[in-house]
Give the backbone structure.
Amino acid sequence: MTDENELPENSARAKIAALEQQIAAVRKEELKKRELILHNFGLQIEALRTEMEETIGIELNRLRADLNKASADLAFYKEEYFKAVLSRSWKITGPLRSATAVKQKIRNLLNHDKPAE
């Protein structure tokens, strides 16, 4: 009678062992799929990072070029300004510009005191 009881028990154990092996195989396949998905995400992230760095690099180079141009323009106009200030005509017309500024201030003061018509 022991052999009859052990037979179904052994059969059940064998079925359980076979199911556990199937479960392990399915888990292993799922892990491989997930690893592949994660690897693909990693590749996509790296591609996006590279693209972003290239875009930022291009934009940064454009901004540097704009800054260099603005610096060159500033140097040019500063030089032109000092040339004009140091020129003979600027020195000659200096008193006239001063007189015009004083005249304008006096005119503004006089107009400010007038009542509105």
